[in-house]
Amino acid sequence: MNEFTHLVQAVSVWQKFVRSAVLACACGLWGLLPSALMWSALLGGAQADDVPVAIGKYQGTLSQRAPGGETAPVRTFGLMTMRYESLGVTDVIYRLDDEGRSAIHWTQRFGNQTFKMTDATSGPTPVLQHFFDARTYRVKLPPLMLGPAIQVEDEASWDGAEGEFEVTGTRRVGNVDCWVVDVAGRAGHGQTLLFDQSSRQLVSATQRVVLGQGDMFELKLTLAETKSVPAGDSGIDAVTELLFLNKELKLEKTPLTGELTANQIDVIQQKLPEVAKLAKGTEWERFVSLISTDVAGLAKREQALAGLSQKFVGKAAPKFELKTPQGQVIDRTADRGQVVLLHFWSYRDEPLEEPYGQIGYIEFLRGKREKEGLKVYGIAVDPRFETAEVPAARRSVRKLKETMRTGYEITADAGNLLETFGDPVALGSSLPLWVVIGRDGKVIEYRTGYYEVDPRQGLRDLDALIETALKAPAP
């Protein structure tokens, strides 16, 4: 390689780093830059693309344990890790390969962990999602490696986020010498972990998990394949872009349903073609393709929902009747000239999962605006209200109201009222549905999904809209 070619490559690497650094600073994401590769790029110049990246592929199984002790697999999944080191800093990028019915949304299936000599691990922990007993559970996977700050030797022990760790011996797995580490979990979920004594990477894990009403499960994770590839061929550029995107759009807070806002969908669609180019021919190509398919479907659905919104917004609200869970018709005479918020949601006490339909923020908004003329109705959409299971539906609403301490009226709907307002669920959307009716009886907001939450102001956008509506004179 002549000096000119080397200089051109060095400048290219430097430009790539500066671009990422500027983007990180602009977005407040400096801490997100993969540390080890970043320093390799700075100090190694044109050799950054040659930095070796260790790729590990794990096979995972979640099994349910019967009363007699035997286990039966209920889930299988894969986990890929990319590990690289520089100047005492180790970065591990992970991706959960799980596409079953219970699979966690793609926005939360990948992340970056950083291990330094001086402090503990930083970054999210991989999570397996499993649907069991009419409820969705999230099971944290075991630590992917032992950080360099941990002094590992015979009988060593330390406290970690998962519980109390203790080195109980050594074991040889294939041609790899491993530390055997037992973990006493804080919730009673024990783990037995084997770590490569040389690389400190997780080799295998057995983890006991309790779900439902004390049902026992066992999670196993085994390192099935390892290989080393140059950073330039690893897809690191593509995943770095995904990490930036994830943080910039706060995708890690995506609800269990995988709902994305119209703005998030638009930004992802704009940036995804470049990410796809960077991922082509790498371990990330299929994952990026999955994202592209999902986002395209969401965009198509958003168009249909936009048409539904146009059908209602600016027009007189359809005539409707509200009933209590016991079946009594609610007298809405006092609602005339008020601003009315209808919040369609399941309102079941089980399964009760974050963000709980954002009903806590609705209660805050009610307390803030009620005296100004805001009336809030929660509408429990539950087909059981028209079946023999109506007592169970009523109990569920009552328990939820008691648990969440809601001060606004919760009404019952077997689905007919939702249909009156277009039923966005039929278009593939998920509840909640928010309908705001102004003092003049016209719909001023029709929206599905969740509002962005401001730490201090709660549902700021909804609050601003209602505040403006309340200033309008009563007819």
Question: Overview of this structure, please?
Answer:
This protein has 475 residues and is of the alpha+beta class. Helix content is 29%, strand content 31%. It contains nine helices and 17 strands. The strands form three sheets. It has a ten-stranded antiparallel β-sheet with strand order 4-3-2-1-12-11-10-9-8-7. The longest helix is centred in the middle third of the chain and has 28 residues. The chain is elongated. The relative contact order is 0.09.
Secondary structure topology:
Layout: H1 3-27, H2 35-44, E1 52-65, E2 71-86, E3 89-97, E4 110-115, E5 127-132, E6 135-140, E7 157-160, E8 163-173, E9 176-185, E10 191-196, E11 202-211, E12 215-230, H3 236-248, H4 262-279, H5 285-312, E13 339-345, H6 359-369, E14 374-381, H7 390-404, E15 409-413, H8 416-420, E16 433-437, E17 443-448, H9 460-470
Parallel strand pairs: 13-14, 14-15
Antiparallel strand pairs: 1-2, 1-12, 2-3, 3-4, 5-6, 7-8, 8-9, 9-10, 10-11, 11-12, 13-16, 16-17
Helix pairs in contact: 3-4, 4-5
Mean pLDDT: 84
Biggest sheet: strand arrangement = 4-3-2-1-12-11-10-9-8-7
Order of helices and strands: HHEEEEEEEEEEEEHHHEHEHEHEEH
Mind summarizing the main beta sheet?
A: 10 strands, antiparallel
